[in-house]
Prior knowledge:
Radius of gyration: 27 Å
CATH topology of the largest domain: Growth Hormone, Chain: A
CATH architecture of the largest domain: Up-down Bundle
Number of strands: 0
Strand content: under 5%
Order of helices and strands: HHHHHHHHHHHHHHHHHHHHHHH
CATH class of the largest domain: Mainly Alpha
CATH superfamily of the largest domain: MFS general substrate transporter like domains
Helix content: over 70%
Amino acid sequence: MSSHPHAPPRRDEREKPEITVPDSQSARTNASEAAAAPPRAALLRKNTLALGAVCLASLMFGLEISSVPVILPTLEHVLHGDFKGMQWIMNAYTLAVTTVLMATGTLADRFGRRRIFVVGIALFGITSLLCGFAQSVPMLIAARLLQGASGGAMLICQVAVLSHQFSDGPERARAFSAWGIIFGIGLGFGPIIGGMIVAVSSWQWVFWVHALLAVVTLTLVFGGVQESRDPHAHTLDVAGIVTLSLAVFGLVYFITQVPALGFTNPLALFIITASVLAFVAFLCAEKLSPRPMFDFSVFRIPQFSGALMGSAGMNFSFWPFMIYLPIYFQIGLGYDSVSAGLALLAYTLPTLLFPPLGERLALRYGSGIAIPVGLLTIGLGFMLMRLGSGAAYPGVSSMLPGCVIAGAGLGLTNTPVTNTTTAAVPTQRAGMASGIDMSARMITLAINIALMGAILVGGILYHLKTNLPATLDIAELGRLAEKVAAGDVDAIRAGVPALTRIDPSGSIVHAALMRGFGWVMLYGGIGVWVLAALSFVISGSASRRLTRVSASKQTSPATRQAARCDSC
């Protein structure tokens, strides 16, 4: 039967004699059709509500990543925090998400995806309230840790809910497309939303708004989401979860604390040693487990490993830098929170516009080419940002080209990475591969939030040491560098009274901040270029080979004949 609603009947259909259905049979047929209509309408209604619930949940998750950075200078001032505290406000969320991703996926399979989804949404709303009520930086960090754990549970259930709710292929594709768009809107417009909330109300509402959204989301879940579970779900890999979490947490803690402790400090050496041992224990646990959380055999698939370099590259450079870019705009350029949020749109908006082009590149040249091209574009954007930040009078105009190109590069990279990580492995391993991809993203993000912070402080410290008198000792300069990185000008003046006499205009301090950001941009650009090269070396040749095979199949006589027959 033709798929077109107004297509003319085929020849054999026109030649068939008309069959008259008796009145009683016609009545029964009409009655059965009428009875069948409500279930179809009810199913459509439930699916619409379920899609709305999943999209709202993805919006909340994305907003919590991108709206909080723009209010960090406000939080640092109101809660009397320091630079390390601001780092942990962000990293507590990402570390908690990483910890619970694989665990809650297994729990959802065993006890019900809808049930865990409901628990995750409810806890996300409650912990968002706790974040808003926090009276100190440690309280906010603890609340963010709980919020990240509930957010990870909420995130991992979204894919499972959509896959079960939409069984039809085209409907599922449309549902996942809508979900991806809303998730991207949350990430892309989070900075301006956060800045506007602070401007018209208070920083607390950046968190409290999620409590209201959680109530609406739960209403949609109860109205539309069907329960589903996997009767053959694997047992929880407790050893793998615990050892990997300890390894990542230890490394992030080491990177954050080592500037103050020193590399040779016994505590610093203990932390990094414990982190390495925890990672070795994780490798052993996964190797010995009959049901490992990570099946390392998939890393032997070139396309998968190359795509994973893309996951790492995006979170090595683009996303962690978004945590610090609001500080650059607000402290370095003197913008308010709304103006900083608007400026950040140049960085985030291209991530929503360029994914279709990335998908076309992957279809035409293969993901092994498309992913490195996207990563190279991100690196080019970072180098242009570094060039713009070093201008005589830096501003949005000097930063705009680099921001747009970096965002375009992420848009080119993300879709090929997401599609390849699941398509490159056997179907029965797609869920595990998706979990590895998400874990790689969050782990790389957490580590590089800490690394970029350390590099920023290091660049500021280097400039201060070379431009301030030697009367200030290194410990005092280190504390000053952290205050400069946090953007707390009042604390700088109060903490170092001599600075008022040495640098009355503040030009040395301002130049130190810009120098530190230049180091961070250079690190992000070089790092993502290295990962682009690794991705190309790992999967580029395999991708070109697959593309040639696909092209030869499409141009073979048999294929052309089949295409002609299909079009008849």
